[in-house]
Queue: 3 jobs
Job 1
Amino acid sequence: MNAEASETIAAIATAPGSGGIGIVRVSGPACRTIAEGVLGHCPAPRNAAYLDFKASDGSLIDRGIAIYYAAPHSYTGEDVLELQAHGGPALMQMLLSRCLASGARQAGPGEFTQRAYLNDKLDLAQAEAVADLINASTQEAALSAVRSLSGEFSSHIQALLGKLIELRMFVEACLDFPEEEIDFITQGHVGEKLDLIRQELTAIFKSARQGNLLREGIQVVLIGQPNVGKSSLTNQLAGEDVAIVTPIAGTTRDTVRSAIQINGVPLHIIDTAGLRETADEVELQGIARTWRALESASVALLLVDAAHGITGEEKSILARLPADLPKVWIHNKIDLTAEAGKIECVGEETHIHLSAKSGEGISLLRDHLLKLAGWQAVGEGVFMARTRHLEALKSVDRHLNQAVPLLSQPELVAEELRLAQEALGQITGEFTPDDLLGEIFSRFCIGK
Ligand SMILES: Nc1nc2c(ncn2[C@@H]2O[C@H](COP(=O)(O)OP(=O)(O)OP(=O)(O)O)[C@@H](O)[C@H]2O)c(=O)[nH]1
Ligand SMILES: [Mg+2]
């Protein structure tokens, strides 16, 4: 047992604020002693015991349910004590303080899950899924996080890792027989096996990419001249009046953010101040914020009034946008021009004609945003994945790709396979540097 694990940690596991029930969770070797102090005795493992929770002077803090889990049959793999009391913030604090005074120390963010990981209760991808499940903003995101937590993503990675190791062992064995190396490689169908592994990798990447989209969502920034209807379109997409709409040009002065979802994909919609020449100090600052919002955008919607179409003003706005930022032209107010809602692709450009007021054509925009995000219909197999997982999968693919033209040099193939294995192992935590672990768990909430 290392020094940290010999310490007993405690934290309020339920969300801050008032609730019907609040839980203080304790993990580590002092659980039994703490239970004896607070409850009078340690309850039988995995039994809900209705008991008095007592202060050090014997006075009553609350009466509630205590559950004791004996190591290794607990979330963390250590002795764990859960005290379920009434969920008031003052009461929770008293109960926590009682545990801290009896030999526990305050747990850091994610420390319970980190211990579960260190005790092999979860691998790293599963541990990350715990935080992603808690933070999921849509049902689809939550479902895919549960899938990763239950080990679906990890088992795909493990299966691939197994095949990679098998191939690597074969190639390395060939190195012992230098005369026959090439023959071995051909007879062992190394090229074909490499191909099969790459196909499997592509399928995993697709699923993981969808899961990552559910986690991260996309940022959609609405820009255009004043009065073209950016705030009206924001409200239409959000389904509520999040931004002020008036016929006065220059109404929006600040960026207005709202979170929506389409088919479970979170979309962060950012309404901005209309772009125009102005001497108004407040408006100038708003316009500067518009340009800043564009720096982190995934998509820019360029709004124009359908009555006059794209003018020189819009062309100069377009010229200032980052070249690689996906853009969609929105011709708004078609209720005034009596056009029908439509989507048109002209060369590289997409034009959507709609009315933010009547809602006509909005579904075309929604569908197109999903397409731009890279969303495909949700299959059963989508699992939650983080950007670091996608990067690791890309790195595996790069090394396998590099191995393909090297089949006549087995030692180089072996090296690429070794690097691919290392990159893949980072996902589940087999080859993960300590500082990365610290970074991952520090982003958890306290008590998990
Ligand atoms: N008929 C019609 N009017 C619209 C439509 N969209 C917006 N408007 C009107 O156009 C005016 C300006 O709308 P806003 O949504 O405030 O425009 P904006 O682009 O946010 O303007 P700024 O915040 O000043 O940059 C308001 O009077 C809206 O009611 C539309 O689709 N049809
Ligand atoms: Mg506005």
Job 2
Amino acid sequence: MPELPEVETTRRGIAPHIEGQLVDSVVVRRDQLRYPVPKDFEQLMGARIHCVERRGKYLIVNTDYKHWLCHLGMSGSLRLVDGDTPYKKHDHLDIALANGRHLRYHDPRRFGLVVWAGTTPQAHPLLCKLGPEPLGHHFSGEHLYAKSRGRKGAVKNFIMDSQVVVGVGNIYASECLFLAGIHPKRAAGRVGLARYQALAQAIQTVLGDAITQGGTTLRDFVNSDGQPGYFAQQLRVYGRAQEPCPQCGSPIHTQVIGQRSSYFCKQCQR
Ligand SMILES: [Zn+2]
């Protein structure tokens, strides 16, 4: 599933090729995504694309006609192809640009979405309640500490809540809690400020590294072949049940927390 680093990598991959471009035509082959693609999406024809931004796992494409949002769902990808590239199964949407390239949306499971964003995208109902960006100025250990007071639920579920902070998916949650030495089932309200500062730093390190790593796959976003450029991460604990902990050597433990697989070291995480 595309996570925040993949979405940011997508943004960086497509931005230089679509910003400033005029939309030549729009082809919607299948409009039934998580929400229907707007009936008037073809009206983008003739509009100029100003810029592509990201908020959480949403891409915001600003044009001089209307702005639109795209979410990649479980299996979506957005890439640039040459205009004469034949479309494949699950290539649901093409935005043809005046430079001859097509921005092509592919999504086998169709949990993604393409919708108008309104005049102020940040105020859109899908975006307005999102917590801070993990790599932005509003995110800190103090923020996590303040948000968590009185919360009895597991800290792992707490940091995966997009109203607390965006972008900490299931895999990243295990990795970040390991780095910060915090047991995933500890009650969020029972973690102190210093430990939340370590956790905030771990979140920034893990997501920052993933984005840096994603940079090496950028060419995949302007290539018509192969898989989308989602990258295999170097993972410390996730998926490594029974393997030695990289810190102390005792076997990595796995347990389902909040219906999601979690990996942690019982010795190093308290
Ligand atoms: Zn350990």
Job 3
Amino acid sequence: MAFKVAERGAIAPFIVMDVMREATRREALGESVLHLEVGQPSGQAPAGVRAAAARALDRLPLGYTVANGLDSLRERIARHYAHAYSVAVRPEQIVVTTGSSAGFLLAFLAAFAPGDRVAVAAPGYPAYRNILKAVGITCVDVPVGPDSRWQLTARVLEGLDQPLDGVIVASPANPTGSMLSAHEVAELAMWCELHDIRLISDEIYHGLTYGRAAATAAGMKAAPHTVVVNSFSKYYAMTGWRLGWLVVPDDLSRAVECLQQNLFISPPTLSQIAAEAAFDCLDELEARVAVYRANRDLLLNELPSAGFDKLAAADGAFYLYADLSDRTDDSALFCARMLAETGIATTPGTDFDPVRGRRALRFSYAGSTADMAEAARRLKAWRGV
Ligand SMILES: Cc1ncc(COP(=O)(O)O)c(C=O)c1O
């Protein structure tokens, strides 16, 4: 019998990581590359986080922690819900994870059986679809657009004629930056509860909003089966520290704990100790949000004259999703040409929507304002304006 790659392991690439590899290769050859592909805050983690890590590195043995994470961090995260949203979440509901990425794996394995059907928005974050496939769950891509503000609302789901076991939403969303209103979050959570559909609410871009604040699905008494996913990667600027958390409903808590014990043992100890300090670095973190806001304003102003005039909602996160219908139906080729000819790396829409994404691309504005201004200048020159 020949060796083979198992079908469930043969998942699609996370295209942005492939683009990043190519952009970095060009940079190493001395080309001037602007990174508008990857969604990660630039610069260092907050000073308080780094100081806490340095102290721990010097003084503590840094062995494993208990599987669900340090009690003090779980308590601090629970307090964050009281403070930021006026919502009561018990520390025992918090499970600290190795980035939200590990949180998804734990949540999917605990909540869904092979063959279950889980709806995701298209365009949407590619790893939902790819992780679901790897664990044998059927991903139901639901096309969304401006009508529902690029979101899976209760009304969109009501209109589907296929049965579902789960739904994943992100507000603010990647790649569109669109948000659900507080009313829509509550309505969606209750609709899912009523239909025995497990809601997974990805709240990783909370804090990165430019109008109204994002509403959490955590702590809703009328929807006690919802799983909430969050992370220190985006607002807290700690991507490489690989730390996130889940708010786990009671019915899943022992399963998630056992999965974590066996799959990861525990989340990274140094990162856990340091992350507690992140909640006391709000001035520094808000200063970053001000930079993202300036970047967003700059691009929203400049991109239309560079030929990118159809942009999705952009309520939050640090992304702009541009419709390219009148320029290409091969976004991968378009982005590759843009990188080669202007040095600007962006992500083809096919990462987020395998079908309609052929006519879209995503700009990430997580970098510096100087980089955004230079990108706008190069794009306009590329367009000949
Ligand atoms: C919507 C969304 N969820 C989850 C993640 C995963 O982040 P992490 O594993 O760093 O927490 C990302 C990363 O870009 C994302 O965009």
